[in-house]
Amino acid sequence: TEIAIRTQLPPSKYKLACDRYNSVATYTERDGSPLKDKVSRFYPQGSMSIGATIAARGKDEEYDIDIIAELLLPHGINPGNVLDILFEAIKGLHGSRYYNMVKRRSRCITIFYDDGMHLDITPVILRTELQDRTSDLFHNDPDKPSEPALTLMMNAWGFSELFKLKTKDTTTFSAAYGQKVRALEINIKAEAEEVDPQEDVAFKSSDVVALQLLKRFRNTRYTDRDGRMPPSVLLSKYVSDVAYPMESIVNALIYHAEYVRRKLVTAEKFGELIYEVNPTCKEDCFTDRWPLNR
């Protein structure tokens, strides 16, 4: 239990992440920004949106927070241009807030904070003719100019909502676990401000905690390895596929680890690659960048 608690993003860091999220959103739309009046909304995606954020690559003070920036830009725009515009909007002029903290990546813009937290802001354009928040996502790797730029479909919001619905706690686990998280946080950092109990990220189902432990194990295995890790969203989908709230962290972890293992063993048996898509958007492939080969 203590390993699980120390692995997750504690309430004080959750609040800090929320503050930074709001600051970036406001700054991106400031006067003089190339995205002034061109942002429809910001919203969390991935681990932040489902309460499964953990330390990155096994480093306890390093956290990745994923944000979607839904932009009011024309459909058909060059993928590289979308990423460049968001990069310019966040980077700003020399001496400005994020000028020396920001990096343009293949699908997002990353802000690096001195305390180890990273904010990944992914630009999308809403597909208004489709359900929920199905959007266009853009891929353009600045380090691989020969690689084709891509416009892909995604619905991170739809998957997050489905995940939360399927992993909702129906036992007494969540309340008991939340109390333990708060007790440990108080001991570690007494001055930490409380998070509103109605939005308390400490209250999690056993499915979500098992997911955090699976991700933590993956991260420690890949700490000194080159290459891309199996994506978090893939593990999230596997947990969501067979969600079954339990009273025991150990039983939940074994249950989900066995399911992941069966998926891997089956693919290996038939000489296939792992292939999974977003249940809320079949065009949104969760395994388009891992695995690339057996």
How would you portray this structure in words?
- The protein is of the alpha+beta class and 294 residues long.
- It is 39% helix and 17% strand.
- Strands 1, 2, 3, 4, 5, 6 and 7 form a seven-stranded mixed β-sheet that branches.
- Helix 5 packs across helix 8 and helix 7 packs antiparallel against helix 8.
- The longest helix has 21 residues.
- It is globular and about 55 Å long.
- About 4% of the residues have low confidence.
* Helical/strand content category: alpha+beta
Major sheet? 7 strands, mixed
Radius of gyration: 19 Å
Q: What's the total number of strands?
A: 9
- Mean pLDDT value: 88
Beta content: 15-25%
Q: Give the uncertain stretches in residue-range form.
A: 188-199
Q: First CA to last CA: what distance?
A: 35 Å
Distinctive features:
single chain, two-stranded antiparallel sheet, seven-stranded mixed sheet, alpha+beta, globular, 294 residues, 9 helices
Summarize the structure.
This protein is an alpha+beta fold and 294 residues long.
List the helices and strands and how they pair.
Layout: H1 2-7, H2 11-28, E1 39-44, H3 46-50, E2 63-71, H4 79-91, E3 102-104, E4 109-112, E5 117-126, E6 135-139, E7 150-154, H5 156-166, H6 173-188, H7 206-221, H8 232-241, H9 249-269, E8 277-278, E9 281-285
Helix pairs in contact: 5-8, 7-8, 7-9
